[in-house]
Amino acid sequence: MNTALKHWREAATLILAAGHRLGDGLPGRTAPLVSGRGGLRPPRHRRFDYDVLMLQRSGKSGFMPNAYVFPGGVVDCSDFSSDWLEVFKPFVDSPNFGLRHVEQPIESRPPIFATDRLKLGSAVPGEVALRICALRETFEESGVLLVVSKREKGLLKSFEETWGGQHYTEDELSGAELTKWRALVNQNPSNFVQMCRELEVLPNIWALHEWANWLTPIKKYGATRFDTAFFMCCLQDIPHTLQDEREIEGFQWSTPSEILRSYQDRQLWIAPPQFYELSRMCRFTSLTDLHRFTHQRATEGCEQFTPVVVFKDEQYVSLLPGDKQYPKDNSEQTGAEKNPDTDSALHRILISDPYTTTLQITITPKYNHLLPVEEPGLSHDVNGQL
After folding, report:
1. pLDDT tens digits for range 359-377
2. Three-state DSSP class for 234?
3. What's the total number of domains in the chain?
4. Which among 152, 242, 265, 366 is placed 20 to 30 Å from 181, CA to CA?
5. Do residues 137 and 12 lie in contact, with contact meaning Cβ atoms separated by under 8 Å?
6. 356 belongs to a structural domain
7. Cellular component GO terms, alphabetically (predicted)?
8. pTM for this structure?
């Protein structure tokens, strides 16, 4: 792990999108979710042909209790273990174990990606270990195991344009075996590499595409800050899903717009990064288009978003890079200052109360990324504009 970073912990999360047929009552799909003040809402018309997995954190959690989040968690030292060199033996001579090269210059890469892990004693590249972490945490929290068989021929060639690849369910592994390994990995993350050895599988790091990087604001969610790499993975169908009953109390598969409407209706709570990223996804109603964009854009790189939160006009304003008031040096900054280079630029999240969030954005996103839909209750299909 990056022991050079003393102020925050590194983490990885996975935005998992999976296809469904248009319509209701699909196997494995959770309809708009919880009962709120007026009970369950009737399904509204939607055009999305895919859902996103959201997990409800335990109410006993010390970090964002009861929040709905994407699967993920803190990086463990075992994610950087040299034991992975044996598992990935066919790929250790390829740069980053066969992951595609990112065009973003190293000096502008977020620290979580730019840090030289070899200098920190790890033979496993950071971009590999972060993906291992995201896949391990997804398995622990939801039971979804994204792996590929080591016996499959032409692995790398098939990964370039494929979807998320194989996900093991109780139909493909015995339910007892999958349950056994999930319990062992939950007990000790180092058992993940042992599981891959025994099952002769590889964590499907190639199906995860770099999407974003968020660093929690100073003193916003407690003393500990989290530097989190966000990855995207698209599956053609919804996998069997189970919460872990420890860190996770529930889950749902719903479209991005349904999740955002449930949040706006005060039926669930999501943090600003989830609000922002789901609003980005509202640009795509088609899973095929989302997958194509994600795959093409991933080699461009990404920008670290470190929100600077100020209180103004009876609401919290979360300033993001590029905003006219975003500090040029925000390493220990707690307030905003005038940035003369961006007089008219807005890139901010306005939070009037925990369930009332709006976006103000006039900037052009970097690295060929998408801007969020500013009214996320509405979907904006960008098919044909890529």
Report:
1. 999 999 999 999 999 875 5
2. strand
3. 2
4. 152
5. yes
6. yes
7. mitochondrion
8. 0.87
Sign of the alpha-carbon torsion through 150, 152, 156, 161: negative
Structure tokens, 120: 């920190």
Q: Are residues 256 and 321 in the same domain?
A: no
Which runs of consecutive H residues, i.e. helices, occur in the chain?
83-87, 111-114, 126-142, 155-159, 175-187, 191-199, 256-264, 272-281, 287-297
Residue 178 in tokens? 């999958």
Span 124-173, pLDDT tens digits: 999 999 999 999 999 999 999 999 888 764 555 545 455 555 454 444 56
For residue 318, being part of any structural domain is answered with yes
Rounded CA-CA distance 39/165 in Å is: 38
Q: What backbone phi and psi angles, to 5 degrees, belong to 273?
A: -60, -40
Q: Classify residue 41: in a domain, yes or no.
A: yes
Distance CA 342, CA 361 (A): 13
Question: How far apart (Å, rounded) are the C-alpha atoms in residues 249 and 65?
Answer: 10
On whether both 342 and 233 belong to a single domain, the answer is no
Within a domain: 37: yes
**Dihedral sign, CA of 386, 377, 322, 212?**
negative
E strands present in the chain: 8-19, 50-57, 68-69, 72-74, 145-149, 167-168, 201-203, 209-215, 225-235, 248-254, 304-305, 308-312, 315-319, 347-353, 356-361
